[in-house]
Write a structure and sequence with these properties.
Strand order of the largest sheet: 4-3-2-1-5-6-7
Number of strands: 11
Helix content: 40-55%
Order of helices and strands: EHEHEHEHEHEHEHEHHHHEEEHHHHH
Structural class: alpha/beta
Bound molecules: NADP nicotinamide-adenine-dinucleotide phosphate
Distance between the termini: 65 Å
């Protein structure tokens, strides 16, 4: 039998891995490792983890790497004794994203910092494997217009959106009734309001099912991550918010579902392991092996129940933001980033995250998204407002 991991007849796909030192970035490189010859890592972009990046340079030999700032670039230049172009800052990440030889950019920088490099990749005609949900949350209509203009593919990496994408394949759009995003519920699923008040950053970043970066882990604990995913899904699948529902599914086996008008629900299931969704995005329309352990169906106990928006009100803010439209989702996203950062630094209580985001949203009148500058302006304004609100609370 032929060795399925040898792809001598398939030209390798050039990848830019943006956010290579993070959870999604490292998992992407594991999928690459698992499929020798199938992918070529052309460029990497990271933040400040110079040591981690150095090891990746040694192993994958990219042509170009980028780090968050000049200091990190100087440190890398001192020690990276190999022929690689080293750049830095947002310009550097844009260069890595659009580098010659890149066929697809894996967009996995965390937060709003991922938006501009992803846009650069789209404008340079690169396909996108999108983990950075903030790109669509902040600038959905603009990004979709740019995607259309460039004629590139946008493949979801978020496991829920990957599941929806897979469950839509082979079905007619007019038969769709709605989509159902699953949420594991995070570490405080059954916690009382008083327990939530006393949650520490350490506890909030210990997700029971997924191993992720700190920001998204806190968002999972507040259910804001699900809210951001509702907005992402609305843009990605062109759906009204009424067509998108959320169910709590603590086992995190069903990654999301599509409901059709005949009462059928099509779901995608697998172990909670991001390598599956990453592999599907970077190899679509093929499926490749990626190291995800098989799902054993015997003895599976799958539960589904309604989210408790009284204890986890951040989810409702996301529906408010998508209904308001324009700059409001970008404002929600920026206020959340500042509030989560404040919480992780010990300047804000866990349950005050909601108050900061809703306070900033209340002060904002949504404007239509005329350009990327409109988005960045709203983002800057919301960050200042959120920081000011945290100071008054502290
Ligand atoms: N983790 C998951 O399972 C998962 C699932 C679905 C979607 N996502 C989304 O994927 C994105 C990444 O999540 P993650 O969990 O992988 O986060 P993470 O572990 O915190 O990693 C973030 C990555 O972004 C880099 N970075 C941060 N700021 C940067 C900047 N200004 N310039 C360049 N690079 C920068 C970090 O670099 P350094 O570490 O070198 O500083 C790191 O490589 C997020 O948008 C998240 O919502 C994640």
């Amino acid at each position: 039998m032929a060795d399925l991991n040898k792809h001598s007849n398939i030209p390798s796909k050039g990848l830019a891995v943006l956010g290579s030192t993070g959870s999604i970035g490292r998992n992407t490189l594991e999928v690459v490792r698992f499929n020798p010859g199938r992918f070529k890592v052309v460029s990497l972009a990271a933040g400040n983890n110079v040591e981690g990046l150095k090891k990746q340079i040694q192993e994958f030999r990219p042509a170009c790497v980028s780090v968050a700032n000049d200091a990190a670039a100087r440190e890398l230049k001192k020690t990276a004794a190999m022929p690689v172009e080293i750049c830095s800052g947002a310009e550097g990440a844009m260069k890595a994203a659009s580098y010659e030889g890149v066929d697809m950019a894996v967009s996995a920088i965390s937060g709003a910092a991922g938006l501009i490099p992803t846009l650069a990749a789209i404008r340079a005609g690169k396909d996108i494997a999108l983990a950075n949900k903030e790109t669509l949350v902040m600038a959905g209509p603009i990004i979709l217009k740019e995607i259309k203009k460039s004629g590139v593919r946008l493949l979801p990496v978020d496991s829920e959106h990957s599941a929806i994408f897979q469950s839509l394949c082979g079905h007619r759009r007019e038969d769709l009734k709605g989509i159902i995003l699953t949420a594991s519920g995070g570490p405080f699923l059954t916690a009382s309001a008083s327990v939530l008040d006393a949650v520490t950053p350490e506890a909030a970043t210990m997700h029971p099912k997924w191993s992720m970066g700190r920001k998204i882990s806190v968002d999972s604990a507040t259910l804001m991550n699900k809210g951001l995913e509702v907005i992402e899904a609305a843009f990605l699948f062109d759906l009204l918010p009424e067509k998108i529902s959320v169910v709590i599914h603590p086992q995190a086996i069903v990654h999301s579902m599509v409901e059709y008008i005949d009462g059928s629900i099509v779901a995608q299931m697998s172990q909670p392991d991001m390598r599956g969704a990453i592999a599907y995005a970077i190899s679509y329309p093929e499926r490749i092996e990626c190291g995800t352990p098989p799902l054993k169906l015997h003895g599976l106990n799958l539960e589904f129940f309604e989210p408790d928006v009284k204890r986890f009100p951040c989810l409702t803010l996301a529906y408010d933001a998508i209904r308001a439209g324009g700059t409001m989702p970008a404002v929600l996203n920026a206020a959340d980033e500042i509030a989560v950062d404040g919480f992780l630094k010990g300047n804000l209580g866990f349950t005050c995250i909601y108050g900061v985001i809703s306070g900033v949203m209340e002060k904002h009148s949504a404007r239509s998204l005329t350009s990327i500058e409109t988005v960045l302006e709203a983002d800057r304004w919301a960050r200042q407002e959120a920081a000011a609100l945290i100071r008054t609370l502290g």
